Amino acid sequence: MAQGILKDTMANAMLVKDLAEVAKDTALLHGVQIRVHESPNSSEVVTYAPITLFPSPVPKSAFYQALAVQVHYNTLVDKISQDADFLQKALASTITVDNFTARLFKIHQQVLEEGKAQSIVLGLNRSDYMLDQKNEGCPTLKQIEINTFAASFAGLTSHTPHVHRHILKVAGCVEESQRILDNNSAAGLAEAIAKAWELYGSKRAIVMFLVEENQINIFDQRCIENELWKRNISTKRKRFRDVSKTGSLDPDRKLFVDGQEVAVVYFRNGYMPQNYQKNANIFNVENFKLDIKNWLMSGYFPLSTFAGLYTLDMGPEGDKTIEMALRTPGLFVLKPQREGGGNNLYGAELQQVLQEVKGSEERMAYILMDKIHPTPVQNILLKRDAPLKISTCLCELGVFGTYVSNWPTMVVFQCT
Predict the structure, then answer these.
(1) Is 336 labelled a binding residue?
(2) Is 343 annotated among the ligand-binding residues?
(3) Predicted local confidence at residue 296, as pLDDT
(4) Is 338 flagged in the annotation as binding?
(5) CATH assignment of 1-307+372-415?
(6) Is 114 annotated as contributing to ligand binding?
(7) Does the annotation flag 155 for ligand binding?
């Protein structure tokens, strides 16, 4: 949309400046905002969240394909998480070289040995896609990763359509503004959390948001909190150190924090090793398996919507993968097994790392993925204190999915 109809608009510097001011105000008006880095734990000063001035185009067929396949990923993730033998086999190589994964898996095994105290399982997933334009014709949907742990931005993106609709109208594109779909991701996540809370069976119990030390993105989480309060479900925000100090398990292995019974722990933090330095075992529940599933899904399921994935395990197949990548590094991306995308390696850096680890087990901490060739689009990025300029953008499509099971019965099962 921004690529074609709005090309002339983006070339008009004065108009862009006016539209940018309107977009910033509209974002703040609708809650598309974050705290500032100077004071991440105070809402006295806030700013608009980074956002594009115009919406980015997604082909209708690819969009609905992503929605349709999400419910199947929900099933896959749930079944994998309940298959202890499969998890152990699939994660064997990663556990060997990644202490963090190994530690979480040890907690998982301890839970199994002690016996599960809870049969209710809540899954909040987000699948991220790019449109691959490697060949001529229509672009194909390729999954970059599936986030099963602390997946963010359901809240802010629920309000983003209001901003883009308004900007298109102000820019004179009224008809195009009507093509912007509603986004109800925050309500969808809250609905699943509420169902899990209901199945827990205690109206006095709370939903605990386990949050970061620095809470810049608090408004994204507040959207979900508010949806739960609309349902008269109490929520509390706690950090790991808070739970370490005031958390306990009663004889029935129910979790209490500050004397309040906790029905659901919603992890918005906990994906870094330092989060588990002490008292990690207080969460003697199945939530830890959510993180394990993320890495498993990232490395072992080359399905039709996945970009090509190649093992770096020790052995002939892994050796062949390394030779292929060193020979044609421009065709691939090297990804850490348990990382969400910020430390991907390309080209010369990819070659350097593979040369360093090719003869050791350290290589199993990575996976190799086909490089996606997304169609670039022109847009203008709005970010605090950043100059206004036309940028070449590579877009991702994120699709949330939720499920609640009282194993083996699936209770809630949907794309949000």
Answers:
(1) yes
(2) yes
(3) 38
(4) yes
(5) 3.40.50.1760
(6) no
(7) no
361 annotated ligand-binding residue: no
Task: Output the pLDDT for position 4.
Answer: 56
Whether the CB-CB separation of 168 and 407 falls below 8 Å is answered with no
Q: Is 275 annotated as a binding residue?
A: no
Report the percentage of the chain scoring pLDDT > 90: 59
346 assigned binding-site residue: yes
The pLDDT value given to residue 300: 38
Per-residue burial over 278-315, b if 16 or more Cβ lie within 10 Å, else e, is eebeebbbbbbbbbbbbbbbbbbeeeebbbebbbbbee
Q: Is 236 annotated as a binding residue?
A: no
Tokens in use for 404?
Answer: 């609640």
372 is in an annotated binding site: yes
103 among annotated binding-site residues? no
Pairwise CA distance, residues 158 & 154, whole Å: 6
- In this prediction the pTM is 0.88
Q: Report d(CA 379, CA 150) in Å as an integer.
A: 28
Residue 213 known to bind ligand: no
Return contacts of 141-144, CB within 8 angstroms, 24+ apart.
141/62, 141/65, 141/66, 141/305, 141/397, 142/305, 142/306, 142/307, 142/372, 143/303, 143/305, 143/306, 143/307, 144/307, 144/341, 144/372, 144/396
| Rg of the chain taking only CA atoms, in angstroms | 22
Is residue 231 marked as binding?
no
396 is in an annotated binding site: yes
The CA-to-CA distance between both ends of the chain, in Å, stands at 24
Residue 339, annotated as binding a ligand: yes
